[in-house]
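Practice problem 4.
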C-alpha cells in the first residue's frame, strides 16, 4: 500500500449479523496488522456511535454485515464525509440488500433468477392461496432485506405456509416467497485487482442439513466447501459469466460474492449478491482467494487498495 494512512476496521453494529461482523472485523484487523499496515479496530453499537468517530477515520474497512452497515447507509455517511472505504457504494449496497430489486436488475440483463411473489400488507390466507396457485411445494420464504440467510425458511407442506409467513412478517417485515430450485450450492467471489474485476475460483458448498439457512452457514460441521468446484468448462464459463454480470449490473465495486444454485441442466440461478462478504474462518471468499495463491492478509490488502482506486464521480 502506497499511503501511510490508518485503516479503521468497522465492526459490530446493531443488525442480527453483529457476531459475524465482530469475527470478520477482528480477522481483518489481525491481517492488516500482520502486514505492517497502520490499523485500528473500532467496535460500534449503532449509527450514532459511528458518527462520534468519523473525524478520526482516514480509510474505512467496513465489516458491518447486514442492516445499515450493508444497505448503503454507512456507505453514504462515509461518502458525505469524504472518507475512502472498501467495498461497493450506497446504490449498489442498497440493491444488494434488497433481494427483489436485485431480481429486477438481473432479469433485465438476462441473468437467471428464481421466480418470486412479494408480500407486505396482505391477508395471509390470500397469500397462501396465491403461492399454491403459482408454485409447487416446497417453497422458500425470505425477508426482503436481510443477509446471511437470516430469516430464510423452507416450507414443505401447505399447513406450514401461513405460520411461517406470519413469523417472518412479524420479525422482519416485507417478505417474498420464492420457488424452490434443486441444485448445487455455489458461491463465487469477485475481486478487483490489476485494474479490473476478476471472478475468483468457484466454491461449492456441501451441507449436512436439508436446507442452507443461517445455522447451517455458520455452525462448524454443518457445511463444507470444495474449491475450485468440479465443473466442466462450459458450465464453469456460464457460472462465471452470471457472476460477473451480476457484480457489474448492480454496480458493485472492489469485491462481492454471488450465491448461485446450479441446476442439473447447467443453469446458474443467482440467489443474491453479498456486497460485504463474510471474512470469518467459515467464509468462502478467503478460501477462494487462497486457491489461486492469495493468502488472507494479501486478500485484505487488495480489498483495502480498491478503496483508493474507486472512480471519482
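Answer key:
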Amino acid at each position: 500500500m502506497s499511503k501511510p494512512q490508518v485503516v479503521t476496521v468497522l465492526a459490530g453494529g446493531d443488525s442480527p449479523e453483529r457476531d459475524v461482523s465482530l469475527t470478520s472485523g477482528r480477522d481483518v484487523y489481525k491481517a492488516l496488522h500482520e502486514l505492517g499496515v497502520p490499523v485500528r479496530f473500532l467496535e460500534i453499537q449503532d449509527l450514532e456511535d459511528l458518527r462520534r468517530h468519523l473525524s478520526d477515520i482516514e480509510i474505512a474497512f467496513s465489516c458491518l454485515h447486514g442492516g445499515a452497515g450493508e444497505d448503503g447507509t454507512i456507505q453514504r455517511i462515509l461518502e458525505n464525509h469524504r472518507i475512502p472505504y472498501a467495498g461497493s457504494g450506497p446504490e449498489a449496497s442498497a440493491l444488494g440488500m434488497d433481494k427483489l430489486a436485485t431480481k429486477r436488475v438481473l432479469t433485465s440483463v438476462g441473468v437467471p433468477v428464481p421466480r418470486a411473489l412479494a408480500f407486505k400488507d396482505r391477508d395471509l390466507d390470500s397469500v397462501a392461496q396465491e403461492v399454491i396457485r403459482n408454485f409447487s411445494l416446497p417453497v422458500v420464504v425470505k425477508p426482503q432485506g436481510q443477509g446471511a440467510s437470516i430469516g430464510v425458511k423452507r416450507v414443505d407442506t401447505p399447513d406450514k405456509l401461513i405460520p411461517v409467513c406470519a413469523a417472518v412478517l412479524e420479525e422482519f417485515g416485507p417478505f417474498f416467497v420464492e420457488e424452490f430450485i434443486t441444485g448445487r450450492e455455489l458461491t463465487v467471489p469477485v475481486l478487483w485487482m490489476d485494474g479490473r474485476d476478476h471472478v475468483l475460483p468457484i466454491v461449492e458448498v456441501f451441507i449436512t442439513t436439508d436446507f442452507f439457512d443461517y445455522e447451517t452457514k455458520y455452525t462448524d460441521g454443518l457445511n463444507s466447501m470444495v474449491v475450485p468446484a468440479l465443473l466442466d468448462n462450459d458450465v464453469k464459463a456460464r457460472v462465471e459469466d452470471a457472476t460477473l454480470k451480476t457484480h457489474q449490473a448492480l454496480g458493485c465495486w472492489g469485491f462481492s460474492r454471488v450465491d448461485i444454485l446450479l441446476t442439473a441442466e447447467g443453469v446458474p440461478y443467482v440467489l443474491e449478491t453479498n456486497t460485504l462478504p463474510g471474512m470469518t474462518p467459515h467464509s468462502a471468499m478467503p478460501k477462494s482467494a487462497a486457491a489461486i495463491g492469495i493468502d488472507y492478509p494479501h486478500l485484505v490488502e487488495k480489498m483495502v487498495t480498491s478503496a483508493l482506486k474507486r472512480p471519482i464521480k
